[in-house]
Specification:
By secondary structure, this protein is mainly alpha-helical. The chain has a single domain, classed as Recoverin, domain 1. It is 48% helix and 3% strand. It contains seven helices and two strands. It has a two-stranded antiparallel sheet. The chain is globular and about 45 Å long. The mean pLDDT is 86.
Length: 135
């Protein structure tokens, strides 16, 4: 029960159950996930922070930013919090472990390694056979 009950509320929700059943990333998938993390972690700190992504994430079209209810840093932190999986802490940063958990959870819904690789290539502008990215 404690393995599946990630939020320790005494219940196992659907997302918690699925997360507990998922398999580890295959080698190909993990390589793409690692490559994307390295791309995003500009300063090599092991954390993706707002300063890491400020140059590549345009906050100007975010509703809250346009309305003046969110600062640029708040928008960036919200974006980064979207990568927190069930075990994440919504601190406006993404650790390497949170990144792996997010993509491990996402990989469950992809039909094949090929599909996952194409998804990562398109999302992050990286190639499976390249070290360079479009960012």
């Amino acid at each position: 029960m404690s393995y599946y009950d990630v939020d320790k509320d005494g219940n196992v929700g659907y997302e918690e159950f699925l997360s507990g059943l998922r398999e580890e990333l295959t080698g190909r998938k993990r390589e793409m996930v690692e490559r994307a993390f390295s791309l995003m972690d500009k300063d090599g700190s092991g954390l993706i922070t707002a300063s890491d992504i400020a140059a590549i994430y345009d906050v100007s079209q975010h509703k809250g930013f346009k309305e003046g209810t969110h600062t640029a840093n708040q928008v960036l932190a919200e974006f980064l919090d979207s990568f927190d999986s069930l075990r994440g802490n919504n601190d406006g940063k993404v650790s390497h472990d949170e990144w792996l958990q997010y993509y491990s959870d996402l990989a469950v819904s992809t039909p094949s390694d090929d599909y996952f690789v194409v998804m990562m290539e398109q999302a992050w502008g990286i190639g499976e056979d390249e070290q360079n990215s479009v960012f």
